[in-house]
Write a structure and sequence with these properties.
The chain is an alpha+beta fold. The protein has a domain of about 60 residues. It has 1 helix and 3 strands, in the order E-E-H-E. It has a 3-stranded antiparallel β-sheet, with helices on one face. The longest helix is centred in the last third of the chain and has 10 residues.
Length: about 90
């Protein structure tokens, strides 16, 4: 189980809830439900070890906005394509 398939987060279809049916990973931008095509790797140096990477997923439309948000705060590390064949829980 990962955050993309956990019940109650609104990230799965009601008819598939609790059955482990994979649904497309969606963009992390507020209110965006577009399928993710990018992963933005970041960490907060005040609370994370230097090698720790957190991941926000992004659609093509919101990639630049999310990168700018993280860069402005000194959190962004790198952006990589999000492979559609990878389980979202395995994003690197």
């Amino acid at each position: 189980m990962n955050i993309f398939t956990m019940g109650g987060l609104g990230l799965e279809k009601k008819e598939d809830a609790g059955r482990g049916v994979a649904t497309p990973a969606v963009c992390s931008r507020k209110a965006c439900r577009a399928e993710a095509t990018w992963q933005l790797l970041w960490n907060n140096p005040r609370i994370h070890t230097p090698d720790r990477r957190k991941v926000w997923l992004s659609c093509a439309v919101h990639r630049e906005w999310l990168e700018d948000y993280l860069q402005t705060r000194g959190l962004w590390k790198e952006t990589q394509p999000f492979p559609m064949t990878v389980d979202p829980g395995e994003a690197h």
